[in-house]
Amino acid sequence: MAGAAATAGAFLLGEPEPPASAAPAQVVGFHGPHQAGIATPVQDRLHFAAFDVAVGTREELVALLVSWTRAAESMTAGRVSSADDSGEALDLPASRLTLTVGFGPTLFERAGEDRFGLAASRPPALADLPPFPGEKLDPARGGGDIAVQACADDPQVAVHAIRTLARIGLGRVSVRWSQLGYGKTSSTTPAQLTPRNLMGFKDGTDNIAHDDHAALDQHVWVSSADGPAWMAGGSYLVARRIRMHLESWDQVSVQEQEATIGRTKTGGAPLGGKGERDGFDPATLPADSHVRLAHPASNGGVRLLRRGYSFVDGSDTQGRIDAGLFFLAYQRDPRRQYVPVQRRLATDDRLSTYIRHVGSGLWACPPGVSPGGHWGDTLLG
Amino acid sequence: MAGAAATAGAFLLGEPEPPASAAPAQVVGFHGPHQAGIATPVQDRLHFAAFDVAVGTREELVALLVSWTRAAESMTAGRVSSADDSGEALDLPASRLTLTVGFGPTLFERAGEDRFGLAASRPPALADLPPFPGEKLDPARGGGDIAVQACADDPQVAVHAIRTLARIGLGRVSVRWSQLGYGKTSSTTPAQLTPRNLMGFKDGTDNIAHDDHAALDQHVWVSSADGPAWMAGGSYLVARRIRMHLESWDQVSVQEQEATIGRTKTGGAPLGGKGERDGFDPATLPADSHVRLAHPASNGGVRLLRRGYSFVDGSDTQGRIDAGLFFLAYQRDPRRQYVPVQRRLATDDRLSTYIRHVGSGLWACPPGVSPGGHWGDTLLG
């Protein structure tokens, strides 16, 4: 689609465009029963933004979402967003860009105010997350009326997409907070090498695979029986900015690290096992190890689709690296999935010593968009 | 070198390693007359850190630099840094990792104190940068006794390298500040597509090419005649964190943007010209345009080797994206190169309306290391 971008650029400025990069166009389809960017094989880079809505009426909110949808259709296809596109992605292919939208609790009701006549449509599963032991949430890195997850294999493409939506929304939305994720940590493609998080361990070995439709239906996609009807085919997103205390982690032995995680560091095998993907009984792992406590067998079969990214945001005033995992998990019902699992992890997980949750958000991601439709049309249309 | 990493990993933990990524090993040689990471074709990603030294003696400083050099030799070859490597780059190839070190003014003398007996060796060219009009420097993002520039085509490899050096230096150095650069903006490979900065313009079209040895000798490498002798083959690095006011930039027309830069947006041609690389007379560009004012012809022939990266560090409290250009420029003498050029730009450049310099640093980067030698051995050996 670099050619399409070049064409649009030429249209924009009336001059010839030199040959663009030879990289093959990589386009993830925008339309479908589910939003792209959830089951889509995880792209390398992330730019995530939580927006607060400033408009006062439902009609204005719909108009915003229609504008955003049209821009997303263009950008995910590798075309410019409009005639006055900001330009930094002009020469780049689509790079598997996906844009995924979610609606936060405050869009339905904020401080008792039914801003857009949506209070009665708020899904019971979009219940505010409870406080968890040990977290230290920064309100400047949490919440937001609308979340947009931009994933792409090129960071400039993801950054351009979020910037473009912010620009289209100028005066109608404001960016509440945003996060760059430089590298994926949770693959959904088990045939490929499992990425490592900043603790040096493989992450996401037992993640739900992008093509495991039975597991996606069971754990990720909201069914029409779940209700409300407008969420059928959608999913709930929990985001947690998890700061890692890497200086402390780096001081302990590999043996202690492996006992904390429950897997070997180099190979990623469960402790006592041989291969990363060998079956194992989590009850054989240390009682307070992360893999044992987070395992479906320890949580009534509950699973999450994880799509986390590593972040590095400079250094704090003590010279410690401000880095960790920007955890993104999709699920059918956070009340049955993220909340009970995290409650257990927050109290029992040995890993809690080395991490702190510092940002948090929860959003209802509506189903996918049909051609001619727009984000949220099952709720607002 | 993924194989080498796997071997070292197996040595580390005594278990077999699964087949690593099939990506070809991409190793930039560490040793040579000049440090790698200056003329090296610009890699895609950056992690940069400025360290303050906490040790009290010259011997301890040398010991630190020896340890760092040995780790850098390993990591740039795609091997682990040590038996207790933190591990997050274990499966990754060298990814053209380079590590480049520079010594700041405070290493030679701090508040009148000759900490390491180096005051007499301070190069005259390492004169503190003067204040420039319009800058608003954050002391928390400036200075530092030692700078380390890590560049690689994989961000995890660059992040791992800086983290490893910080870890090796624990108790001997502290990170003063650090910066992630997600994408290069200044190519030194004119045969490739010129990257775009976050203003959407091609950046670095007329940069010094990596293989233009005459220009490198004239503008980048310190000669033995320049003095001091220990800097021969080295270079001076100026870093500037340049915040872009992208919301303002996005509000003005493409015509205004092009008049501000002096080149067309889509194609990158000088205004009035046809092709990006066509020769042009800068006097034909608008008098206050960036390209005219920064052009060698407007600066007595002065050139800089630029190696800048785009950054996005979330959003500020007003919801504006904290993004811009992390400018890195190598040169033979900042007093004749960066300082006069920036003095002119700070007062006359129309682009100044849309940017602000918020961080700054200056370092003397010693020449390259010979096998068995160490960073800074011409100064400290």
Tell me the series of helices and strands of chain A, N- to C-terminal.
Answer: HEHEHEHEEHEHHHEEEHEH
Query: Helical segment tally of chain A?
Result: 10
**What is the subunit arrangement here?**
homodimer
| Number of beta strands of chain A | 10
**Which percent range fits the helix content of chain A?**
10-25%
Mean pLDDT of chain A: 93
Q: What proportion strand of chain A?
A: 15-25%
N-to-C terminal Cα separation of chain A, in Å? Answer: 31 Å
Question: What's the story with the biggest beta sheet of chain A?
Answer: 6 strands, antiparallel
Overall form of chain A: globular
Largest interface: which pair? Answer: A-B, 69 and 70 residues
Low-confidence stretches of chain A: 1-24
- Secondary structural class of chain A: alpha+beta
Question: Using only CA atoms, what is the Rg of chain A?
Answer: 21 Å
The total number of structural domains of chain A is 1
Give a quick set of tags describing it:
homodimer, 381 residues, alpha+beta, 6-stranded antiparallel β-sheet, 4-stranded antiparallel β-sheet, 10 helices, globular, disordered N terminus
Ordered list of secondary-structure elements with their pairings:
The structure is a homodimer of 381-residue chains.
Chain A: H1 2-13, E1 45-53, H2 58-76, E2 98-103, H3 105-108, E3 146-152, H4 155-168, E4 173-181, E5 183-184, H5 213-219, E6 235-244, H6 246-249, H7 254-261, H8 290-294, E7 305-306, E8 309-315, E9 321-331, H9 338-348, E10 355-365, H10 377-380
Antiparallel strand pairs in A: 1-3, 1-4, 2-3, 5-8, 6-9, 6-10, 7-9, 8-9
